[in-house]
Design goal:
- With 464 residues, this protein is an alpha/beta fold.
- Helix content is 29%, strand content 20%.
- It has helices at 42-53, 88-95, 97-120, 124-127, 142-156, 169-176, 195-206, 342-355, 408-419, 431-434, 436-439, 447-463; strands spanning 32-38, 60-63, 135-139, 164-167, 183-187, 211-214, 221-224, 229-233, 236-245, 262-272, 299-302, 307-311, 317-321, 366-377, 383-386, 394-398.
- Strands 1, 2, 6, 7, 8, 9, 15 and 16 form an 8-stranded mixed β-sheet that branches. An 8-stranded mixed β-sheet has the order 4-5-3-11-12-13-10-14, sandwiched between helices.
- Strand 7 (221-224) and strand 8 (229-233) form a beta hairpin.
């Protein structure tokens, strides 16, 4: 079991100006609500959004131990990228080809739905749209690059992977501005965004309806009654008929059955300031009326996803990962985001200048460094459905395995449909891979860590 989120986390680049850091719809905690959602991150806010969109008229209250986005959503690397070719053949064996192809479809449709949401509500100007149209998956070893090509060839048999284009060594080095790269695959489905701003937009939208938001209100205990749940907080108690846990890595704090199913894993990210001494070549200035042109207008993933990067329009580089510097546990089981791992910080500073040596100067000028807690699912799939007894009044939407931006919006939609007694209508939905009651029967503790270890071993072997 994990404790509630600490109250003094590291400062995230994304959360510097959070309008909903200390927000309460009412001065006092309501004593009663039809539906309570614990968690004001991408899953919790998406749940409220989908419930309202589906016509729910019940009173909804959202509680969070921090401000809006104070958990993983406001502390990630800023990517919105569905899975593609990586480990495609192995995952088809592990999960079954049909299930894995549906998983890829689920993420693809989720990412498309988020982009559509931003566009339909006109949030691009006020909150920022989806920056970049692709994610570049870059390779430092020839074997690793050749393996990616084989995975793409296998995907083609299932009519998948058409959005991916291969860049050979010369083009990859030119585009990525790094002499060590031997090739790259660019994924036209990917993109990057300011994750917290998406949450601010969602929050503003749902608060126009029958929603009460209470930040800095951690739930310390839940007592189940015959027809309701009584939630204890430092500010008083609140009863509800429906209770949804959208707490990702912290789910086992109130749901101990998930202690060996959803594991906290700490991620670490740095933001590099666009100062005159930060880059080998200055960021180009088009003219005084237009913003600067960054070195990269796409996101980048390196080392089988262990490291990831994006550059914001003002030139700031957001670069994260480095958990391999914390072997053997690689930050598995760490739920404290009030500190950073110095070994990881050193690795991030070293490799960003080493790999992108055509753009980034040493010493790296880090503006801010922070951590966040991901919720790794032991089976690699989210948990999205009813949990506990058979009353179907308590739900969980968590365990996004470090891929929440590509999974949470539609996972939340599926949970909202279940709460309202409707069939799940989400592309790529696989009941046996998402529903908690079925998954609890087959949990294999330690699987997620072993899979990361295997990924790291394959990476090292590919470089020999």
């Amino acid at each position: 079991m994990v404790d509630i989120p600490c109250q003094h986390p590291t400062q995230s680049y994304w959360l510097r100006d959070n309008p909903y850091e200390n927000f309460r719809s009412t001065p006092d905690l309501p004593s009663r609500s039809d539906i309570v959602i614990i968690g004001a991150g991408i899953s919790g806010l998406s749940l409220a959004y989908h419930l309202l969109t589906l016509g729910c008229t019940k009173q909804i209250t959202i509680l969070d131990a921090r401000g809006v986005g104070g958990g993983a959503t406001g502390r990630n690397g800023g990517h919105l990228t569905p899975l593609t070719y990586r480990s495609f053949r192995a995952n088809c064996v592990r999960y079954g080809a049909e299930n894995w192809c549906n998983r890829l479809r689920f993420e693809r449709e989720n990412a498309a739905a988020v982009k559509k949401l931003v566009h339909e509500h006109g949030w691009e100007e006020e909150y920022g749209g989806i920056d970049g149209v692709i994610l570049m998956q870059a390779f430092l070893g020839v074997k690793e690059f050749e393996e990616a090509k084989m995975e793409l060839n296998e995907m083609a048999k299932y009519q998948l992977g058409r959005e991916s284009t291969i860049w050979e060594r010369e083009e990859a080095q030119h585009r990525l501005k790094g002499r060590q790269f031997v090739g790259a695959v660019h994924n036209a489905l990917g993109g990057h965004l300011w994750p917290a701003k998406l949450l601010y937009a969602l929050t503003t939208l749902i608060l126009k309806s029958n929603v009460n938001l209470q930040t800095h209100t951690p739930v310390t205990n839940v007592i189940s009654g015959p027809s309701n749940y009584l939630l204890h907080t430092p500010r008083g108690t609140l009863s509800c008929t429906y209770l949804i846990h959208a707490t990702n890595a912290y789910a086992s704090h109130l749901l101990p059955d998930l202690a060996q199913a959803i594991i906290p894993v700490r991620g670490q990210v740095i933001a590099i300031s666009p100062t005159p001494n930060a880059f080998q070549h200055p960021i180009s200035q088009r003219n005084q009326l237009k913003p600067p042109t960054p070195h990269w207008d796409f996101g980048v993933s390196v080392n089988r996803g262990f490291e990831y990067m994006c550059q914001k329009p003002d030139g700031t580089i957001v670069f994260g990962g480095g958990r391999e510097a914390a072997e053997p546990r690689m930050e598995f089981g760490v739920a404290d985001d009030s500190a950073v791992n110095e070994d990881i910080g050193r690795l991030l500073r070293r490799v960003v200048a080493e790999w992108f040596d055509g753009a980034v100067k040493e010493p790296v000028d880090v503006d801010i460094e922070w951590t966040g807690i991901m919720g790794y699912s032991e089976d690699g799939f989210p948990w999205a459905g009813p949990i506990g007894d058979n009353t179907n009044t308590q739900y969980v939407c968590a365990g996004f395995h470090g891929h929440g931006m590509a999974l949470a919006f539609h996972s939340a939609k599926a949970v909202a449909q279940q709460i309202l007694g409707r069939p799940v209508d989400v592309p790529g939905w696989i009941p046996e891979m998402f529903l908690p009651r079925e998954k609890l029967k087959t949990v294999q503790p330690g699987t997620a860590w072993r899979m990361d270890q295997l990924k790291l071993e394959k990476l090292r072997t590919a470089r020999l």
